[in-house]
Amino acid sequence: MGGTGMAQNVNPFLQEKYGTPYEIAPFEKISIDNYREAFLKGMEEQKQEINAIVRNRAMPDFENTIVALDRSGELLTKAGNTFGPISNSNSTEETRALEKELSPLFSAHYDDIYLNPLLFAKVKEVYDNQKKYGLDKEQTKLLENIYKRFVRGGAGLNDEQKAELRKLNAELSMLELTFEQNLLHETNNTFVVVDKLEELKGLPEANIAAAAKMAEENGQKGKWMFNMQRPSCNPVLQYAENRDLRRRVYEAYYNRGNQNNAYDNKEISRKLVTLRLQKAKLMGYEDYASLALDTRMAKTPENVYNLLNQVWTPAVEKAKEELEDIRAEIKKDGYSFEPEGWDYMYYLDRAKQAKYAIDEDQVSEYLEINNVLKGIFYVANKLYGLTFKECTDQFPVYEKSAQSWEVIDKDGKVLALFYSDYYPRAGKRAGAWCTGFREQTYNGNERVAPVVVNVCNMTVASKDKPALQNIDNVTTMFHEFGHALHSFMCDVHYEGVANVERDFVELPSQINEHWAFEPEVLKVYAKHYKTGEVIPMELVKKIEESAKYGQGFATVEYLAASLTDMDLHVLKEVPANLNVMEFESEKLKERGIPSQIYPRYRVTNFSHTMGGGYTAGYYSYMWAEVLDADAFQAFKETGDIFNQEVADKFRTYILTPGGIDDGMTMYKNFRGREPQINALLKNRGLLK
């Protein structure tokens, strides 16, 4: 990204057109000052647009109020769609400073809109008289969404309550941002340093080379360093024979944000939980989860707990069985210690190998990243007729290692534009996500193609090997591409109906994972990086047989995080001295969690809930898994995982409508009935 703006720098955001292919933002020409100017001007423009709606003397109707509101803030959207993905994947001191500077301004700006009584009166007038406008389904949904957004934004509160809400919103957005920035720092700058090569015994060569390179980059030549990005620290937990090294890495990873330093997130988390509860009570809810769930498929905290508890008991039982296998492996080494959290991945991997003789290192030799992507494209082609034309040399570049494609539909038209950004770097936050530089919209009658990005932190190439991935990474690539497919296919006329419920959003991503290790798909992409030979069928069989192994551990750590998220947000009172870490431990202990398992994220590094994206919503992955497991059965039942009739229905009813229908309606349109939980339990090996 460019440096500070010079006088001669024309701000690309303020030009009528970018003049680039498909009007993709010209990333390399945009400076930090361009962003600032566009955001400030964008807020100003939207204010004027809102004033124009309010001052319009004509009777409020669907076009002059609802559509005008939906279309307002174009410059703000344009700048935000570019800055958001960049600040998450190429964060710098400049971008972080700008986020902090703008956070209170944005909070106030959106409060000015949703707490504007004259504007709400007009929206309510249209909402109360909607029958006379002859609206279609999409328009009705837009009206309903906008009306609800005002009500949930505090439009119905009195002046004193509105002032309190503004204060809460400003504090919450700043705390969430600070939490995220602290976590980014802790993830990238918490290091475990190793002095002697023999301490790394068991680690694959590629990981040892990457650790040496990291040490050199950090002025520790001749040593080995691991940071808390998963590609760096996970292999230590899985392969390192040195128990003390595993412990050091494990504790460093799980204590991010909990080190009593300048980046500590305990107090921030306590404040977030406290202020969210205050906001919920102000809005007339007894707890924050009830407020959050009101617009989701789950509707109530009871429904969420009901699902999580159904899976918890069999998952804990399965995890205890796995613990016995771990104890047996420890005994084989001639030790008698009780396993701890840092022994789990290492010995579970060994137990898996003992049971199934599967060598992950050997498997990864067939999973070179570019081939995996070919497999992902193959599935999209077989299901939906999409083809992909690489345009990396023609499209604007926001990151040198990212690639880009035109996504061409079966009718030959460009459906979307796609960037893949797969490798870790210092300014990139941990994890994997799907984002976009532009959402699908309409310009008159012409559909504007979305610009969609998959961002991951995959294993990079080493000196002598290309970027070979493990099974988890391949699953993640298929998962994020499922989100991308959802964005590619979206076809709506209004921004306000583009989004689906938070607990429906993981259905397209999670169902796409099901094709990753199907034999027919593996034959296409799983080729040995040296010889090109297709993965042998006996290895495929082992992958299939071993897939359910370790699901006790994986399910419990996921559920533990989901339950903690809910437990914090169903509190009716938050003690002033609440220690979030002690709260998490006590609650999970009461539920009988094995002491060796931590939640997948502990509160101080639980970006999903504390960063604000999945607050009282981390359960969504499990909720959506009930849907995706049941939906994949629809393909399996036909005997053809690429059944065109089922694929067409999935595209029509799930991927295309955006949020025009609610999630359960969309699901029933596709499946002909409500989803059933059995397929999920079976997939995870939790059915008796």
From TrEMBL:
Family matches, as CDD domains: M3A_DCP
Required cofactor(s): Zn(2+)
Domain Peptidase M3A/M3B catalytic, residue spans: 236-685
Record's keyword annotation contains Protease: yes
Record Pfam families: Peptidase_M3
Keyword line: Hydrolase, Metal-binding, Metalloprotease, Protease, Zinc
Name of this protein: M3 family metallopeptidase
Family, per entry: Belongs to the peptidase M3 family.
InterPro entries: M3A_DCP (IPR034005), MetalloPept_cat_dom_sf (IPR024079), Neurolysin/TOP_dom2 (IPR024077), Pept_M3A_M3B (IPR045090), Pept_M3A_M3B_dom (IPR001567)
Superkingdom: Bacteria
Keyword Zinc included in the entry's annotation: yes
Cofactor binding note: Binds 1 zinc ion.
